[in-house]
Design brief:
The protein has 210 residues and is α/β, with parallel strands linked by helices. It is 17% helix and 33% strand. InterPro entries: Calcineurin-like_PHP, Metallo-depent_PP-like, PdeM-like, Pesterase_MJ0037-like.
């Protein structure tokens, strides 16, 4: 799905990433690498192949767009270092794009680990009149691109059936990104009058207005 924000074009993809066409930037939030390995370590029965699913999805989205930069909007790595970091380090060697991280609350490992991989780290980024953060923020005259919340929405059918889906959640001055990573969960939001929701379906993004 293509949307326009402040005269800029963004392509929303059903995997939860967005491509900023004019800047050739791929935006991804809440990847939470290391979370699956953390769950497995604590006895949860998650197949080992699930560890590689995030990297497969990353590679698939990179093939679709001519991105020159990838900006992670926080929570790139879930918490403490584990073996998924080695998979990530190997993955960074396969990409040519500049990698930038906007720090999230889960990004607690040493910054040196990122700089050793030539990944820039910033508490926030300003590009033209866009403010890129992890936590939803507001600044006068800026449109905020952010993550953190893992937004989702519950849709009610004609009967008693409910459908729970991840989404991009747009307010007049803000776009909250869905979590890109596997096994991240959702926080379900209720749209207000001026909000727009872009639901992630299997193969498409569908706009839902209140």
């Amino acid at each position: 799905m293509n949307i326009r924000i402040h005269n800029q074009n963004f392509v929303l993809h059903p995997c939860g990433a967005a491509f900023w066409e004019e800047k050739k930037i791929l935006l991804i939030s809440d990847l939470h690498l290391g979370k699956i390995a953390h769950f497995r370590k604590h006895g949860m029965a998650i197949p080992e192949k699930a560890v590689h699913e995030n990297f497969k999805r990353l590679n698939n989205i990179l093939q679709l767009f001519d991105a020159e930069t990838i900006i992670f909007l926080g929570d790139l790595f879930h918490s403490k270092m584990n073996n998924e970091w080695e998979f990530f380090a190997d993955w960074t060697k396969t990409v040519t794009q500049q990698l930038i991280l906007v720090e999230g609350n889960h990004d607690i490992i040493s910054k040196k680990n990122y700089t050793d991989l030539n990944i820039e780290i910033h508490p926030e980024i300003i590009i033209d009149d866009f403010l890129l953060t992890h936590h939803p923020s507001r600044a006068e005259n800026f449109f905020n691109l952010c993550g953190h919340i893992h937004p989702g929405i519950k849709l009610k059918g004609l009967g008693r059936q409910f459908l729970s889906l991840s989404c991009f959640f747009r307010k007049p001055d803000q776009l909250i990104f869905p979590a890109f990573g596997e096994f991240t969960g959702n926080f379900y939001l209720i749209p207000e009058e001026n909000d727009t929701v872009y639901v992630l379906a299997k193969d498409e993004v569908i706009e839902i207005k209140r």
